[in-house]
Design brief:
With 230 residues, the chain is α/β, with parallel strands linked by helices. The protein is built from five helices and eight strands. The protein has two domains: 83 residues, no CATH class; 135 residues, Nucleoside Triphosphate Pyrophosphohydrolase, CATH 3.90.79. The strands form two sheets. The chain has a five-stranded mixed sheet, with helices on both faces.
Length: 230
C-alpha cells in the first residue's frame, strides 16, 4: 500500500484544487462568451467573445489531455449552442436528487451504468416543478412512486469537487407511496435499500456531504435546507 507523507498529500490536494479552479474558470469564460455572442452577435465585441471561446476551448483540451482537434470540437459545440438574446443567456444546469428512505430506515441506492452507486437523480425537465422532477426520476428509473416531503439541500457541483458541467442539484427527502422496485435497464444495473453507514461502493461523483445531510434530516431533527456558504 502506498504511504504518502503529509507534504505529498498536501501537494496532491493543492493540485486537485488548482485543477478544479481552472475547470471553473474555463466554464465561466465560455459561458460569458456564449452569452455575449447571444446579445452582441456582430461587431468588435463579438470578435472578442469569439477569441474567448477559442482560448477557453484550448484550455479545456489541455486540462482533459485532449488534442487540438478535440479543442476545435468543443469550440464548435459551444458556438452552435449560442442562442439569441434572452434565450441565449447561459446559466448553470439544474438537477434534482431523491433521498428515499424505507420503513427500515434505509436509503434507496442505484447502480448506474458506469458501475457506481448513487441516489436517483437527473436534470430538471421544462414545464414541471423540481419536486415533480424528483418523483418522476424515481418512477422512471426504479419503478417506485414516491412523494417529496422536504427540500434537504441545494448542492453546487463545483463546490462539491466536480470539474464537470456546472450543476445546481436540489435534494428532496422522499417517502415511498407505491410501485415496485424494478430498475430500468437503461438507467440502473441494480437497486436496493442500504443503511447510511453501510452504503455500497464504489460511489458515484465526488460529493459525500449528502450522506451527513440525509442523516441529519432523517435521524437528528434537522429542518433547515443546506446550501453552500459564500
Amino acid at each position: 500500500m502506498l504511504n504518502l507523507s503529509a507534504e505529498q498529500s498536501s501537494a496532491m490536494a493543492d493540485e486537485s484544487q488548482l485543477l478544479l479552479e481552472l475547470a471553473r474558470f474555463v466554464e465561466r469564460i465560455a459561458a460569458i462568451a456564449r452569452t455575449g455572442l447571444a446579445f452582441k452577435p456582430d461587431g468588435y465585441d463579438a470578435e472578442r467573445y469569439e477569441e474567448l471561446l477559442k482560448e477557453a476551448s484550448r484550455l479545456s483540451a489541455v486540462l482533459s489531455g485532449a488534442n487540438e482537434a478535440a479543442a476545435n470540437e468543443v469550440r464548435r459545440r459551444w458556438r452552435e449552442s449560442v442562442g439569441g438574446g434572452y434565450d441565449g443567456y447561459v446559466t448553470a444546469a439544474v438537477g434534482v436528487g431523491a433521498i428515499v428512505f424505507n420503513r427500515a430506515r434505509e436509503v434507496l441506492m442505484m447502480k448506474r451504468p458506469n458501475g457506481r452507486w448513487w441516489y436517483p437523480t437527473g436534470f430538471c425537465d421544462v414545464g414541471i416543478s423540481p419536486a415533480e422532477n424528483a418523483a418522476k426520476e424515481v418512477r422512471e428509473e426504479l419503478g417506485l412512486v414516491v412523494r417529496p416531503v422536504r427540500l434537504m439541500a441545494v448542492i453546487d457541483s463545483l463546490k462539491a469537487g466536480s470539474a464537470a458541467r456546472h450543476i445546481y442539484s436540489m435534494l428532496f427527502e422522499c417517502e415511498v407511496e407505491g410501485g415496485e422496485l424494478r430498475p430500468n435497464p437503461l438507467e440502473a444495473m441494480e437497486a436496493a435499500f442500504y443503511p447510511l453507514d453501510a452504503l455500497p461502493h464504489p460511489l458515484h461523483g465526488a460529493d459525500r456531504k449528502w450522506i451527513a445531510i440525509a442523516r441529519q434530516f432523517r435521524f437528528e431533527g434537522r429542518t433547515e435546507p443546506y446550501f453552500d456558504p459564500l
